[in-house]
Amino acid sequence: MSYRELRNLCEMCRIAGFPRPISIDSFREPNFPLVAELLEWIVLRFEPNALMSTKCSTEQERVIFIKSAVLLLIQNARIKLNPKKLYMADGHAVQELVQPLKILSLADRGSTSEAHAVTIPVIRTKLATKLQEVRQCASLAAQLPQTGSALSSLLEKELHYRADRSRALSRALPPSEAEKALRNATTALSTLATQTEDKLNNVTSDEKALDEKIERKRREYEQMQKRLAKLQSFRPQYMDEYEKYETKLKQLYDIYVLKFRNLSYLQLQMVEMERADRQRQAETETNMRQVVEKMRTDNANQAPPIDVSELDDEPEAMRPTGGARRIYGNMMGVGFSDEEEDSDDDVDVSDGDEEIDHGRAMKDRIPAAGRSRKPVQHLELEDVEDEMAPREGDSGDDF
């Protein structure tokens, strides 16, 4: 910062019309309020409608103010300032403020020189012109590839069309042919115009037809809506009977479900009883085999020896016949073979008679499971089904 710069700043402010005088010693020390006042006045001179925040009590507010002022000067006057030097608010800020003040002072002097006649409308005009040029350059740059490809294709066709072009240039065009070509072109254009007008008229008529069709469909839709409402509110004559039968069907279905459940339960119980009977029968047969085996073992151990000579001496009438005394098989029919019975033939006759009588008694005591069990079960199942059959007046609530 020099004395000359401070003096120039003060003179420029006076010439530009700053509202109060500025001393040369004002910028010896940092003076941010004065710099802010000068900067706000300069921005409003360039753009009277600019909006700026004048609050500069805090550091953040000062930074925002400096940034907004610098941005407005760049946008409106194309003047670029250093915000760091402006924030210092000393001699460095004076160097930055001299640039816009110089432009304002020259404008106030009314200089007609082209180099110094810088006004806001002129700047805006120049900016608009430059922007338009930039847009044109961008559009031309986008068209360059397409234009280059088209030119290349045309240059490739030059050799083919060169002879035709030379022949056409060498021949003079008669006025009659030119008039005829113009007349044909005029007729074609008029025909095309007529077709276009007809299409426009047809479009209008088509729009009217579509509007009428839409209106007719809308009326039909409203009528169908009314008819639907009537049908929904109408109750058929058979509806009461239908509801009555529906209620009865529901009751019958409940009865059917109850009886089906009871039948399933009874069938399950029957299967369990058959299983228990088969198990009890098996246990009984096992016990019987054990008893018979034990009896045979006891008889074999206790039987006295038989004297064959005594048997021969007995009268023939007293001798037991072979069919009465000889026994084949066993009482159960399972678990013993004929060989075992043949081995017991030498047992005493009296002992054999006792064994046969005992076996018959035991056989009478055993229930005939294999002969009569299944028919009895079938009879019981039929009785159960008869019991389960629906009767008149039965509600099905027996279980």
UniProtKB/TrEMBL annotation:
Query: Its principal location?
Result: other
Source domain of life is Eukaryota
What's the family?
A: Belongs to the CLUAP1 family.
Does the keyword Cytoplasm feature in the UniProt annotation?
no
The protein's UniProt keywords, in alphabetical order, are: Cell projection, Cilium, Cilium biogenesis/degradation, Coiled coil
Any idea where this protein resides?
Cell projection, Cilium
The organism is Mesorhabditis spiculigera
Name the residue ranges with Basic and acidic residues bias.
357-366, 388-399
In terms of InterPro entries, this protein maps to: Clusterin-associated_protein-1
Q: Which terms does the UniProt entry file under GO BP?
A: cilium assembly
Pfam families, sorted = Cluap1
Region feature (Disordered): 297-399
GO CC field:
cilium; intraciliary transport particle B; microtubule organizing center
Q: In its UniProt entry, what is this protein called? A: Clusterin-associated protein 1
Task: Name the residue ranges with Acidic residues bias.
Answer: 337-356
| Residue ranges of coiled coil | 200-234
PANTHER family for the chain: CLUSTERIN ASSOCIATED PROTEIN 1, CLUSTERIN-ASSOCIATED PROTEIN 1
